[in-house]
Amino acid sequence: MNEIPFPEALRAQVLERLGKDPPPPPRSGARFGPLAVALGLQLAFGLGSLRGNFWLLDRRAILGVSLSLGLLAFATLSVVLTPGRLGLGATVGWLRLLGVLAAPLYALCTLLWPLGTFDKEVAAWGCMIGSGVLGVTVVAGLTFALRRAVPSAIVARAALIGATGGAWAGFAMHLHCPACDRSHILFGHVVPIVPLTLGSAIVLPRWLRP
């Protein structure tokens, strides 16, 4: 790939094509208020209704999975919000990579690392709906924070917004739901990440484009 000899000049050209004024900065407190509320909701739901068998499961397994899912949630959030070297956001490669891998990485952490057993059956559809609702709140908060402020890689950023919502919702549901069987985790916790990602890629670009 050819190097960009004058990145500031390139940035100025991009901003000029977008209009006389640059996109509104996505770092103001007013923009990030709804997002902070949405993320706080995930943590309050997960920790406030912590699964009853949390400390009854294998200690290393439950802490390892929880830490892995928390890192995944924060990684997607940091990439979707990073301003990038030129102020145009993360590169399209990183956006696409995390957008595509969010669901498989969640599945890898939860399905290949057995936590134990739970003697009561938990309906997967309840967690599927809960994950969808929680994920949509994060998607809405991120969309509000980045509205009219994404000048490049708009579809990829939109998809990662959906994946971020799914990752945070999955983290909250992991903390809340006591189910350990793989079929429940797959359909109730992993699957909702996919429609959130695809739906966001389709619906959100019009709200993100300057």
What does this structure look like?
With 210 residues, this protein is mainly alpha-helical. It has helices at 7-18, 29-48, 59-81, 92-111, 124-146, 154-176, 182-190, 193-203, 205-208. The two termini are 27 Å apart. 38% of the residues are buried. The longest helix has 23 residues, at 59-81. The chain has one domain. 69% of the residues lie in helices and 0% in strands.
Overview features:
mainly alpha; 210 residues
In short:
This protein has 210 residues and is mostly helical. The protein has nine helices and no strands. It is elongated, with a radius of gyration of 19 Å.
Count of domains: 1
How much is the average pLDDT? Answer: 87
Radius of gyration: 19 Å
Largest sheet: number of strands, sense, barrel closure: none
Give me the count of strands: 0
Measured by DSSP, the beta-strand proportion falls in: under 5%
Order of helices and strands: HHHHHHHHH
User: Helix tally?
Assistant: 9
Shape: elongated
Distance between the termini: 27 Å
Which stretches are low in confidence, meaning pLDDT under 50 for 5 or more residues running? 22-26
Structural class by helix and strand composition: mainly alpha
Approximately how much helix is present in the residues? 55-70%
Which SSEs are present, and which pair or pack?
Elements: H1 7-18, H2 29-48, H3 59-81, H4 92-111, H5 124-146, H6 154-176, H7 182-190, H8 193-203, H9 205-208
Helix pairs in contact: 2-5, 2-6, 3-4, 3-6, 4-6, 4-7, 5-6, 5-7, 6-8
